[in-house]
């Protein structure tokens, strides 16, 4: 069928190249659902992949987009997760068979790259050239997509209005990654003092989740005053402006935590100086969690003996270790009860305005841009 999609082409002069194009979607196969995409969130990972390709990172040209919601219009013969007419939320895919998948940790699937970064031909352009799809099993930067069953969560019973769909658009990655990192991976409790560095959609979701868990101290760290204010509104008990704190964020955290440091530190920036500082100000026996993506060649030196004596753990967060079919309904439940006001992070744009939406996300003007496809 003929569809519209934002096609990602190989970058030129390190500039990502996106283009809205009319392309042809191939027929829906056995394990796929044809989804009419209502709205798709833009995540920084899309912009990362628009600059990177080759090997495990997949080829150009392709259709990105890994947060979306839509209506099921057709299903393949093997599909059981949803039926025609259902509303679905789209998240990451997993192989379902490896050791991580069968032990209920699909975000750490041993085949995560192969399954999610998509190299299979899913579309054709007018000239007959193949385009890749299946990005995170969904490639939701399009008005229709064939989505892998493993990426689909049925949310029909929680959709009351069109606005619900816009608010739910980013549940599949940003909101899930931030909140599940707090509730599942870090498994925080009331005694915890949590630092969250980087207050975009991921970091602010983490702030809201820490409030839901009633953590005694919740510290938001960012360089934008507007985001720090929003973090306060959403549950941060303290905020640190990195520009004002200069190089001494560690001192600011220690002063708030009576000299102990944070029991859980979550980095959602991928900025190495902050990550190094975070590991330093994390309390003994505390957890340092990597969630933001640094440059691919980023490395860290560690004095092993000194680190050993602290008893700290370093954890890598992939989607917060969430199981989407459990965590997405949980987030919707929080949202409906007013505890997870993701509507305050979302700004909608017409799909054609995707370049403006990306610019606004990069400048910090918009926390979570959501493209509306109708
Ligand atoms: Zn797996
Ligand atoms: Zn993402």
UniProtKB/TrEMBL annotation:
Keywords: Metal-binding, Oxidoreductase, Zinc
Keyword Zinc (UniProt): yes
Alcohol dehydrogenase-like N-terminal domain segment(s): 31-125
Example of a GO MF term: oxidoreductase activity
InterPro entries, per database record: ADH-like_C, ADH-like_N, ADH_Zn_CS, GroES-like_sf, NAD(P)-bd_dom_sf
Signal peptide: none
Ranges for domain Alcohol dehydrogenase-like C-terminal: 201-336
Top-level division of the source organism's lineage: Eukaryota
Key word Nucleotide-binding present: no
Family recorded in the similarity comment: Belongs to the zinc-containing alcohol dehydrogenase family.
Protein name: Enoyl reductase (ER) domain-containing protein
Organism: Oidiodendron maius (strain Zn)
């Amino acid at each position: 069928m003929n569809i519209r999609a934002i096609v990602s082409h190989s970058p030129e002069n390190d500039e990502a190249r996106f283009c809205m194009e009319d392309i042809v979607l191939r027929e829906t196969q056995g394990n796929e659902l044809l989804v009419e995409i209502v709205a798709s969130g833009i995540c920084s990972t899309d912009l990362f992949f628009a600059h990177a390709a080759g090997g495990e990172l997949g080829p150009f040209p392709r259709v990105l987009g890994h947060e979306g919601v839509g209506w099921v219009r057709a299903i393949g013969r093997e599909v059981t997760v949803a039926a025609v007419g259902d509303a679905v939320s789209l998240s990451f895919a997993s192989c379902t068979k490896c050791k991580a998948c069968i032990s209920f940790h699909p975000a750490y699937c041993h085949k995560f790259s192969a399954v999610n970064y998509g190299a299979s031909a899913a579309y054709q352009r007018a000239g007959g050239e193949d385009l890749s799809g299946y990005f995170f099993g969904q490639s939701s930067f399009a008005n229709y997509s064939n989505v892998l069953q493993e990426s689909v969560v049925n949310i029909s019973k929680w959709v009351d209005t069109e606005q619900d769909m816009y608010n739910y658009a980013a549940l599949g990655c940003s909101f899930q990654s931030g909140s599940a990192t707090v509730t599942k991976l870090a498994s925080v409790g009331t005694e915890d003092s949590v630092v969250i560095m980087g207050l975009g959609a991921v970091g602010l979701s983490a702030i809201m989740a820490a409030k839901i868990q009633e953590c005694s101290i919740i510290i938001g760290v960012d360089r934008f005053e507007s985001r720090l204010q929003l973090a306060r509104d959403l549950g941060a008990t303290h905020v640190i402006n990195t520009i004002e704190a200069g190089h001494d964020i560690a001192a600011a955290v220690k002063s708030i935590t009576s000299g102990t440091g944070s029991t859980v530190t979550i980095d959602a920036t991928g900025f190495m100086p902050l990550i190094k500082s975070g590991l330093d100000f994390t309390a003994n026996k505390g957890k340092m969690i990597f969630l933001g993506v640094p440059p691919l060649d980023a490395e860290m030196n560690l004095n092993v003996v000194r680190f050993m004596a602290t008893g700290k753990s370093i954890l890598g967060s992939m989607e917060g270790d969430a199981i989407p079919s459990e965590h997405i309904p949980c987030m919707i439940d929080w949202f409906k009860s007013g505890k997870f006001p993701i509507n305050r992070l979302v700004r909608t744009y017409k799909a054609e305005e995707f370049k403006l939406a990306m610019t606004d996300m990069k400048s910090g003007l918009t926390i979570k841009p959501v493209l509306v496809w109708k």
